[in-house]
């Protein structure tokens, strides 16, 4: 009998691995992945290399499956390991049903269906078509893209901002156009975006809101009510059909392009309370106190009494204590005493917002018409349930209830005759609608649909001239604190009709580039396109 010991293993091609690579190509084409071509080539060579020993082939397959999983994970937009590690203690505190529901959001049944179809099609045609040839051929085409793509590319259009600036310069006799926004002139390479972001942060360190050093004795007192609402973005309102709710029409000023700069509650509240200075990096946000940047500290210096109200305990993620230690909040938060309206995602009670507002009204009535109050509400946070119910409460009825309660608050203040500057600044959105980068309700990456929130201002007790006014420029917290400073400086409440028109009041408010950060993710808008950086990786264009 002839020996078969020297028989060589026949080159069989990629086999079922064709489905994996074709699936990757499709996911990349739809924007769900960013292909790492080098790593894909190495994996392809690894799985194609012929091996004679059955056990070596089995070990190779095991290693390849692990490598493929790691490769897809690195190419995807899923939270990085650093992010998962950093949020593990928060996840551990969440209610089990909420965790399970969140995990189910990651299942994309459309993609699963396409994957199953690919497998069926592969087995149907493999005996008639050399699928491996097409797989390798397409990968080669992608590798050669830097050579052939420029031949088919059209010149990139000039950004609208650049055109507008040029037109403005012509109208003003070619004089220099002043802008708060630093230039974005270089190509969006990873290195250039890193340098631009550094320049942005360096510039923001020197920016300050203009406030009066003192108020005259003849100044008309009024209350400042800062309402910080968790999980409410412009995208969320539109998704559930509440973007035209009647209360939104009652505000005097609306910031149409306001960026909350983060997708988590703690840093969002800190950014609001430290908004008298320019926008710091996420890391600098936690470097300690600077009273010059703290709007509550500066209001206290002007004689305002400070109050804090929340519809929750403030214990989750050490929320309230961080505001005391880093943002200058001085009042101690009382134990939650309001009727329970919801059970939270971490199984703590959430009080009725109407009771919170009534409590503030009672406190305001006993003050000297000169109070500064910070109110934080989490009723709209993902994972909350109606009190006593196990099923997660839908977002729309909770959002409608919040807007209705806000409407009632405005009516009650108007009836009281008090003069109040009501400032509504949501922390971030609820991510009601997911995208190719993040599934619904995931907020690890601070995308524009999450951070662009409806910032609103209402002057109660006077009838301002003009308006309502929509501020369309790119703005963030510095614009809010500057507006408060102008209201104080101009004695805006000193006359029944206001001391100046709303248009004059908002003219020239500081603009801020759309830059958003979490601990392990950054998103910037550069020349009209959004770019994201996860952990210490490179910048990638945000898939729409």
TrEMBL record:
What InterPro entries does the entry give? Alkaline_phosphatase_core_sf, BcsG
Q: Which Pfam families did the record assign?
A: CBP_BcsG
Keyword Magnesium in the entry? The reply is no
Q: Which Gene3D superfamilies match?
A: Alkaline Phosphatase, subunit A
GO MF, one term, reads: transferase activity
* Domain of life of the native organism: Bacteria
Q: What is this protein called?
A: Cellulose biosynthesis protein BcsG
Q: What organism is the protein native to?
A: Parasutterella muris
Q: What is its EC number?
A: 2.7.8.-
Q: Is Membrane set as a keyword in this record?
A: yes
Transmembrane segments in this chain: where? 20-46, 98-124, 131-148
- What sort of enzyme, by top EC class, is this? transferase
Enumerate the UniProt keywords alphabetically.
Answer: Membrane, Transferase, Transmembrane, Transmembrane helix
